[in-house]
Write a structure and sequence with these properties.
Helices cover about 55% and strands about 0% of the residues. It has helices at about 1-15, 15-30, 35-45, 70-85, 90-100, 120-130, 130-145, 175-180, 180-190, 195-210, 240-250, 260-280, 300-315, 320-340, 365-380, and strands at about 210-215, 220. It has a two-stranded antiparallel sheet with strand order 1-2. A hairpin with a 4-residue loop joins strand 1 and strand 2. The longest helix is centred in the C-terminal third of the chain and has 18 residues, at about 260-280.
Length: about 375
């Protein structure tokens, strides 16, 4: 079929040079710069660099760990890209990664960041890898749900260091709302056992009640930031931190039963947050690393990609009015495309942190690429290349 179609196209072009000119001048460039084509190109760039972290400006021990959150978020983006009709090699790469990891979550059983990779495993389980790809995730989540951690959500770093913070066994930092809940809710969908979804929703709302500022409708990264103010006495709301939550809801809501109380409640929260975020987008299409401090702020692509993804998804889902939010999504997408550097990398990705920091053009990271892939797949559903 493809060969016949290709031959027919070549015949038409040979008969009609004007048609050939029109195709080369418009259709091909548009295809090459379509969201999915750009995402496939960036995914290929990143796949070629999975064996080394030399391209990462500030590599940590987790950067090198194929089961930790930094690489995991790239694979989450890859699952969305595979579902959007990318070449088969994208899906194959996900399955090869999972098999190489023996389908194991990260090593800390209660740590949400170590659960992020299971989103890719569960996708693989539903796309041909079967129960073997799901089993270690189920074992890990059975422990979390059946023997839940008992601690407050207050973020207090002990003398032993950050990793010993007691509340990290629960979702006491806003990033966690992207990392773990989508996987738990998907596991309920695949197994038919609601306990994982019920646990995830209870914890999601506990974290939201604790970290969501009711005035600004934005999340503090964790409780250490409740009282922090900048030199103009503005509250500090980290762009990527809120991006984790906004994108997390876009991944959670479709997995919840339509019309259920939790889904309706989360949809209302998503719409409220979208309204706040739309008003904070800068004229250049980016969101500032510190959301309430846009002046002289650098481009930053990880938060911008998550917001662009959420805005585009929300439009397609019918939650956000297209007339109001499509310009926001398009501006965000155009900003992301501009951030692709001459060597093919996605630039201006703030490095690993828990607060706003400086960003440089050459800064890239696995999770920034994953966020770009999510944004691209959502933008593709709007029928626009930006």
């Amino acid at each position: 079929m493809f060969l016949r179609s290709a031959a027919a196209a070549m015949l038409a072009l040979s008969v009609c040079p004007a048609a050939a000119s029109a195709q080369s001048a418009s259709a091909r460039p548009a295809d090459a710069r379509s969201p999915i084509a750009l995402a496939v190109s960036l995914a290929g760039w990143q796949l070629d660099r999975m064996a080394s972290v030399d391209h990462v400006s500030r590599a940590t021990g987790e950067t090198r760990n194929p089961r930790a959150w930094e690489q995991a978020v790239f694979w989450v983006g890859m699952t969305a890209l595979a579902d959007a009709g990318a070449p088969p090699r994208i899906a194959q790469a996900i399955k090869q990664m999972g098999a190489a990891n023996a389908w194991r979550p990260g090593s800390k059983p209660y740590f949400a960041d170590d659960h992020a990779i299971t989103q890719a495993y569960l996708w693989a389980a539903a796309h041909g890898s079967g129960a073997a790809a799901r089993a270690p995730t189920k074992t890990a989540f059975d422990r979390v749900v059946d023997q839940p951690a008992v601690t407050t959500l207050a973020f207090a770093v002990p003398p032993a260091g950050y990793s010993a913070t007691e509340c990290l066994t629960r979702w006491c930092w806003c990033d966690a709302l992207f990392m773990a809940p989508p996987a738990m809710i998907e596991l309920s969908r695949q197994t038919g056992d609601p306990k994982y979804r019920d646990f995830a929703l209870r914890e999601f709302w506990a974290t939201t009640d604790f970290l969501l500022d009711p005035v600004e409708q934005l999340y503090y990264r964790d409780s250490r930031f409740f009282d922090r103010r900048d030199d103009r006495q503005r509250k500090q709301f980290w762009s990527r931190g809120n991006g984790w939550v906004f994108a997390g809801m876009a991944r959670i809501i479709p997995l919840l039963p339509k019309g259920s109380p939790d889904r309706r409640k989360m949809e209302r929260l998503f719409v409220s947050m979208a309204g706040k975020l739309a008003g904070l987008q800068k004229p250049d299409g980016y969101w500032a690393p510190s959301l309430l401090a846009p002046e002289e702020s650098p481009p930053e692509t990880s938060g911008t990609a998550f917001y662009t993804y959420g805005m585009a998804w929300g439009i397609k889902a019918g939650l956000l009015p297209a007339a109001t939010y499509t310009p926001v999504a398009r501006k965000g997408w155009a900003a992301l495309v501009r951030a692709i550097q001459p060597d093919g990398r996605l630039g201006y990705v703030q490095q690993v942190s828990d607060r706003p920091e400086k960003v440089e053009a050459q800064d890239t990271q696995y999770y920034g690429v994953g966020a770009f892939l999510l944004a691209a797949t959502a933008m593709a559903t709007l029928g626009t290349a930006g």
